[in-house]
Design brief:
By secondary structure, the protein is an alpha/beta fold. About 35% of the residues lie in helices and about 20% in strands. Helix 5 runs antiparallel to helix 12. It comes from Actinoplanes regularis.
Length: about 350
């Protein structure tokens, strides 16, 4: 099984580097987006993780990519959300999409690995994609993975540049290697600009307990403790739990928050926006769109596609100009060094 080479510039859009949190630029002539993509009627199935569309984070980024594909590539799409947080619930969501004739089927999140392994072997004629896992080695499964450590490096640098106390915090949803990539990059970026910075780290749960992605009350309690311990910038990579951490930060004068996956400044309530320094952008939307586009073009082999700074896969947002603008020159310098390979962000704490 070959490793699939990512199209850095998709035919349907000219992508900008995500270092400044910019969104893809769509050509004025949208007919170019579907030119040459064939006449096959494509029905895409999207299986979200718990929380589904509307989580203001990971699922919503996948939904944005699907929405863009519906508009630009003229596909039909159906969405499903598991009824339970276990393999049986995820298996049900996948089978619902498969049984109704959807192909490709995209699974949002590594927790689909067991269910997807089963259905992929049972339905070799269907192309599947899974986000955040590359352990399934099957000819009909595409892995969409990201360089989260690079984006986290940049927001870690932003945290240290912004901090007055010299103490910053990282809250992870579940203590797994994927979330440790966020932690490692964040700490390294912070120490790059301030070697003396203290990075407080805490996870909400550990396997087999994955409740850390949906426990905002616990995240709020942990964030409150970090703030009391001197932290004045907190980065939460914890799915829906991040909302609790944001509430704690907003209640602490002078503290700021760093979001994850999507530009959380854009989705936050107006009273919370002023404390959001930036967000680590994980461009799941680009990954979903480009995978659907590849399928339409006939590229249906299994393999791995990695999204990093060079492919507009990760970055940081700049919506809150009042806070982020003074830091941007240094962050852009670091972004270029990561892009060029002069800095290699770590993937392990």
């Amino acid at each position: 099984m070959r490793t699939r080479i990512l199209l850095a510039v998709a035919a349907a859009a000219t992508l900008t580097i995500a270092g400044c949190g910019k969104t893809p630029i769509t050509p004025a002539d949208s007919s170019a987006a579907i030119a040459g993509l064939g006449s096959e009627h494509v029905k895409v199935g999207m299986a979200y993780d718990i929380g589904g569309r509307g989580d203001k984070s990971f699922n919503d980024m996948a939904a944005a990519g699907l929405d863009r594909a519906k508009e630009e590539l003229e596909i039909e799409a159906t969405e499903a959300t598991p009824e339970g947080g276990d393999d049986e619930g995820r298996l049900g969501a996948l089978n619902k999409l498969i049984d109704s004739g959807h192909n490709p089927v995209i699974a949002v999140g590594f927790q689909y690995v067991n269910a997807l392994t089963k259905v992929a072997s049972e339905h070799p004629e269907t192309t599947f994609a899974i986000i955040d896992d590359d352990s399934i080695k099957a000819d009909n499964v595409v892995s969409l993975v990201f360089a989260e450590e690079q984006g986290s490096y940049l927001v870690g640098a932003a945290a240290a540049l912004k901090s007055r106390s010299g103490v910053v915090g990282y809250i992870g949803g579940v203590e797994i290697p994927l979330l440790q990539k966020f932690e490692a990059g964040f700490a390294a970026g912070a120490k790059r600009v301030n070697p003396d910075v203290k990075v407080r780290t805490q996870y909400l749960s550990a396997p087999p307990d994955f409740s850390g992605f949906g426990d905002p009350d616990k995240a709020k309690k942990i964030a409150t403790g970090m703030l009391a311990d001197g932290a004045d910038v907190i980065y939460a990579a914890a799915g829906g739990s991040g909302a609790g951490a944001l509430q704690a930060v907003a209640a602490e004068k002078g503290a700021t928050f760093i979001g994850v996956d999507s530009d959380q400044y854009q989705s936050a309530d107006a009273q919370l926006q002023p404390v959001i320094l930036t967000s680590m952008l994980k461009r799941v939307d680009n990954a979903v769109f480009q995978e659907i586009q590849a399928f339409i073009k006939g590229d249906r082999a299994g393999g791995t596609r990695r999204f990093d700074l060079k492919t507009d896969g990760v970055g940081y947002s700049t919506s809150n100009q009042a806070l982020i603008k003074p830091l941007t020159p240094k962050l852009e310098q670091l972004r270029q060094q990561l892009y060029d390979g002069r800095i290699v962000a770590p993937t392990k704490p």
